[in-house]
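User: tokens in, sequence out, please.
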């Protein structure tokens, strides 16, 4: 099934629901960054969450940045996701592996760490981006981002995220975001019904592995609550805006002395994009041109 995102409402617009399938983009991230099992799950969950959060923004160029810094061996996660359905991201220590938990699930919380902070930046495309910081709750990512939505955006939310992979790679990945909007927040019976149904879920990826589509998952959860699925299906993909020209511009910031040292010692240089793992080779004559440009600009 292709990576995609759909939106829906229920309870006369009192509930907002967004679902995403992110299997292929998570597998691409795993291959690009050579991720371990637990690192794949952590990054896949966070990329899916970024896409779900970005889905509520308005301007086409809007983006969400999620930065998770816990005390676990993974070291941290950084994700950049857009309303346009593109996402990229990386973990600081991609080779970290931990034994699975007693229930057989990957120990994402142990890899991320329960002590630390979650930083979310919303860039609407103009003015100053809106940023917020909350403490981590569990390191499991879904719990932490649900806590962020409640405390920073004052929106009761449930975020269910999952990544299932085996020796062949990522077999299923995606997530579901359910939010009770202000017009329905005072309906205690509705909130209780939604909470019980979310609690009864065994996870998100088991539903995908059973062959259920996003509309079927929505119907299972909200079908008796006036569910309305919006017609637009948005395609999702791993995408990075890095390029050779941008890499040269970044090298230029090193300054003349550092560039000259690269020429003399290595006869060139190499740069790797942290977000996508793309490796760029630069020759000594290109470094020399950067030095020439710097001297021209200084004059």
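Assistant: Sequence out:
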């Amino acid at each position: 099934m292709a990576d995609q995102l759909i939106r829906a409402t229920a309870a006369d617009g009192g509930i907002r629901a967004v679902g995403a399938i992110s299997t292929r983009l998570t597998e691409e991230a795993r291959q690009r960054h050579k991720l371990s099992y637990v690192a794949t799950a952590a990054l896949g969950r966070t990329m899916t969450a970024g896409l779900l959060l970005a889905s509520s923004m308005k301007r086409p160029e809007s983006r969400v940045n999620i930065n998770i810094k816990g005390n676990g061996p993974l070291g941290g996660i950084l994700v950049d996701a857009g309303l346009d359905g593109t996402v990229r991201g990386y973990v600081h220590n991609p080779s970290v592996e931990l034994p699975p938990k007693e229930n057989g699930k990957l120990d994402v919380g142990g890899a991320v760490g329960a002590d630390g902070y979650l930083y979310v930046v919303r860039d609407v495309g103009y003015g100053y981006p809106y940023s917020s910081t909350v403490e981590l709750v569990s390191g499991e990512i879904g719990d932490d981002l649900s806590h962020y939505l409640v405390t920073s955006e004052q929106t009761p939310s449930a975020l269910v995220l999952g990544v299932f992979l085996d020796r062949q790679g990522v077999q299923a990945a995606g997530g579901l975001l359910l939010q009770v909007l202000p017009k329905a927040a005072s309906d205690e019976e509705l909130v209780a019904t939604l909470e019980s149904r979310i609690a009864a879920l065994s996870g998100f990826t088991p539903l995908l592995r059973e062959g259920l589509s996003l509309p079927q998952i929505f119907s299972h959860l909200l079908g008796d609550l006036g569910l309305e699925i919006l017609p637009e299906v948005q395609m999702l993909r791993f995408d990075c805006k890095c390029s050779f020209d941008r890499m040269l511009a970044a090298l230029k910031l090193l300054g003349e002395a550092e560039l000259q040292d690269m020429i003399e010692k290595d006869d060139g240089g190499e740069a790797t994009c942290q977000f996508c793992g793309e490796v760029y080779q630069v020759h000594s004559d290109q470094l020399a041109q950067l030095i020439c440009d710097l001297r021209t600009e200084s004059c």
